Fold each of these.
Amino acid sequence: MADTRDNTTTIGPGARFKGELTLEGPAQILGCIEGSIESNGQVTIGNGANCNATVEAGTIIVDGSVQGDLIAKERLQLTGKANVQGDISAAALVVAEGATFVGHVAVGPEAVAAAQSKRTSAPKAVEYKAATKRSASGDWLNENESSKDWATRAADAA
Amino acid sequence: MKPPPERAVRCYHCSAEIAVPAAARTASCPACYKGIVLDDLAVREGAGMSSRLATCGKVTIHKKARAVTRHVEAGAGVEVDGVLEAKVNSGGTVVVGAKARVKGDFSAPSLVVEEGAVIEGGFFRIGPA
């Protein structure tokens, strides 16, 4: 007998998720999410959802509010009720009249590859926190080369 | 005598809202005294380079056209079916057609991007000002 259950991951209205969400299949966000979402399938940010996260997926449909970067490997669709504050990279973009957004936009096959490489090469927040913690402890005089700020490194190089 | 029908436009120099005769093609802004174009502008074919494309009407970049300008000011919207490289400030909807290629910063109350359009980077501010 065929499995009739829907395999869509749903963050329901009123639910609050904080962290890194990695999925194989489709997802539907109707509640509040903070962190990042990665999926090979379709991610739908529903009307009324509050998404404060970076979303990377095959197809992204935005019908709610998103604060974070969107990377769609195949297609990004913003409906008339979408509100996006963040950078957009997509192979194909469809924007309906009435959508609002503020951010950098790159659309085309090369845009996704560039965004992905930029994302993987970006320094992680954890490393930054570690460096600031060490400085706060008073060991800044004995810090190694990598923890110096850019101005100090430039002066050393000169 | 019946007064000629009027329409409201926003001056792209000083942003003042003014009333002009409906049939007028150019006018002088009573607020800043600068000349303004009221006609729709269209780039139909070939490559066009200028420092500014400005009108209170609509700017259309046709399918075989390539427009490279520093600024595009369009009071009634922009429609791109060809290639546009510019900093765009539109008072109406910006429509990027399926075969269009755009590059630059865009500011508009609303945007329609058809599937297949290519946007080569740029900062977008879409929504009510």
Amino acid sequence: MNAADRFDLGGGEPVITLRDVAKSYWREDLEIPVLQGIDLEIPVGAYIALMGPSGSGKTTLLNLVAGIDRPTGGSLEVCGYDLNDLDDDQLASWRNAHVGFIFQNYNLVPVLNAFENVELPLLLTGAGRGERRDRVEQALSLVNLTDRMRNYPRQLSGGQEQRVAIARAIVTDPDLLVADEPTGALDAKNAEEVLALMARLNTELGKTIVMVTHDPKAAHHARHQIHLEKGVLDRTVEVNR
Amino acid sequence: MRWLALIWKSLMRSKRRTLLIVGSLVLSVFTVAVLQSLLTTLDAATNNPRSSNRFVVRHKSGLTQMLPRSYENYLRQQSEVETVCALQWFGGYYQDPRNFFANFASDETTLFQIFREEFGASNITEAQIKDYLRDGTGCIVGESLAKKNGWKVGDVVPLTGTIFPINPRLTIRLIFKSPKLSDENALHFHYKVLEEGVPRMKGLCGSFWVRARRPEDIPRLLERVDRHYANSAYETLTETENAFNLGFVKMLGNIGAIIQGITIAVVIAILIVTGNTMATAIRERTTEIAVFRAMGFSAGRVLSLLLAEGVLLVGVGGFLGVALANFAAGGVRGSLGMAMPFFADFSIQPETALACLAGALAIGILATFIPAYAATRRPITEGLKAVG
């Protein structure tokens, strides 16, 4: 059984292609391998939950796919770009255009209100003020927070903050959303709302989502679960809903 | 939202810290601006380009010792000399001892020729000068002094002597302007008022102010006068007007070295304080910086934003510091300027203000660059793991 068989995530054009990807860290002279021999193709519109025990390399894999870390071996093609060919500034521009980030702790800027937080990535796009306003309002409307756009993060609940963070992630209309434990800091009700929202982004807007989670309930919202074990892909599970 | 709004909001995330650092910057820039302007003012007092034709003859032992007025004859006989003016510091006050200003008994017949560059700004007419010469108890006052006391021509000014035991009542015959405010804070009256009122001053004088025909004649005149009176009962010390003024500045000690020392200490202190503040502020935002970069802000752009915050911070502090110093300069002129003529010309020169602002901006860039550069070089993944 080859890798393609073991990790078949359905048909469709791949948006993410990893070939023999490896990642190691160095502690003084000691090499610590985190990922080894990762071969994976993720098609457009997939919703993947990366799972595995702590230290299995799932966040590292997410970081590589999102272009905020570089592999020590192998090739990585995401959204039509070989990330190894891009320098740091090109990679930054690429992230702005193609990737939306959703973090566990929301990571909103506390001195900016919801509107301004969502507007942040658009400052890099060259969009005019009017266009930015339209896109921010559209994104906030999608996460049902238009009535809170002038509120600061401290004036929002955890669930609302995460929805603002999701609006920020989608405002540039990226191909790929990456989420690292997006419900890790939320109670069950808010977690469910956020997961439902992410499912909508996948089904209605066709966003490809790669999510790292420990939570089986959260993983159940994905279409596929990929399990990592000690830095290698272990198995993939198609979720039946 | 515009970039400037983003920078300003980031700067104001900790209002107390921002206000404290701006406050310390204001005080530092204020201190440096005032001290450097003081140095400039003193320097200008001892480098008056309008005095290049003038020199001063006084007693070798000091200003409290008198010279015979007959020396004036010898000075006039020198072919290089245009005119001579006997001048004595009177040291009187008007109404209240605190209301102190420069006042002199001076030879009314030559005063206007000796200081013609200073009086030249006034458009003084011959008739006005004649009025003053005709009135033995007349006096002339600078416009600034007259304004301060509400004086006008024809008013009587009673002076109370502190050095000499007379209290002359002087009638203002002329109000003059001068390019230098310090000269406008002065009063001159006829020398004979002093000679007639104080018998011991008969035929004596504190100093002679001499106008040479050409500046290049002055060095040999200085040497010749002192040589002529060497080993006499009244030996002289002859020096240029600028050197004479420098003698007063030197009485304050090595003020230049003191001011520069304080300036360096203030600059180092504010560099450390600003550097520490910016380092703390940037360290607290490690995660936020990583998020910005994850969203697509390049390291260079984040560095520019952080530097802009530092520059804006010190720019505001520097501007307020210079503005405060400028405001304080008016107070110095109005208070100390009366008692110490040098301070009447005290102001924050544009070049000093610009140097202070440039220095503040340099401190802002220097203090921000190192922590900001380190923060933007940190891998994004490490920044995201950092506890904010």
